[in-house]
Amino acid sequence: MKDRPPAIRIEDLASPVLTPMQQAVREGAEKIEVAFHRDRVLGEAERRTGLSDFGPRDFEERLDLWLASLEADETLSGVGRVGAYRDCVRYASARLRMEDFVKRNPEALELEIERPIIVVGLPRSGTTHLLNLIAADRRLRSMPYWESLEPVPAPGAGDTRRQRCIQGHEMQSRLMPLLKNMHDMAPDHVHEEIELQGPDFSTYTIEWIATIPDWRDYYYAHDQRPHYAYLKRALQVLQFQRGPSRWILKSPQHLEQIGPLIDTFPDATIAFTHRDPVSVIASAVTMICYGDRLRCKRVDPAATADYWIDRIEHLLRRCVLDRELVPDSQSLDVLFHEFMQNDLATVDRIYRLAGLEKTTESEAQLRTYMEQNPRGKHGRISYDLKADFGVDPGELRERFAFYYERFPVRVED
Prior knowledge:
This protein is mainly alpha-helical. It is built from 19 helices and six strands.
């Protein structure tokens, strides 16, 4: 058995030392004019797609707030502004293509999203590994990253969506090589379905790329059921394009939207993952600050930690409050340390609850995935909340006592 390589320590988290490539990208992006205006975003989406019907226009209020919040974020560098603007155009383009697809294929909305399996848990709590492991079972429908970025292909022309994603991933790997060690967004990696709520401009995803408390508060204050209905509609569109018909899904956002989630997918089997939130926060804020060396004018680890400690507390308090909305017959709790000790035993528990029988073929598919994707295959990152963020883990655990009291998570060093 080979010894595990030593963990990688990011020594320049607060004061990044940029590579020549990173510096060149920073300087180039500063020369690009970005206007966070609705007409610019929607107009560019219309030009890209040749379409003009966005469907119900209620999304414009949310888009306007996204754009105003992004404009107000003074920490964004040129790279951050260009990236956020392009995301908005991409979402608007996806909305146009989905509306056009439904007009041409109205029967897509007659499809049922039957008994999906949904993984719900904090970011960095094993949700991605569990999702991708179960998605290796080809009897289940999942959504690879390349498909999440462009859910509907342009009609007529050859489908080049995956190739575009490959090119983008290769560039990102050269530009930010340690991202793959923390959360590799490879083109065929199975992605979160809340990416499909982006075209409705109502998801917490945008909080990962900008500091936008006005949007966060608006999102908190509004019932997300209409946007979960939009998510279901998008899944119907994807399922109509190709099967199978039973989905494996996951997202941390669902922790604070358990009511809308179970109302939208009432026959879902839901696996809640639980991990020491101190470890989750250390991992998450390190990853965000590493990205901030390009995305922001300056990196502020303390401010990033403050924001995401509060944000994760909100996710967990809603989970503790709403966990009982999902009946025992449709849900189970997965402790991170138990999952890490025996991945396949956890999958067995989920399958039994979901009424999905393992077969010789599905067992082989899961084991092949495990062999090809060992944990930490790109190398581990060393996290230190106290040294890098000025956060005392003991005090943080006292703040999250409500969660430790509800779920028997194991405290991690």
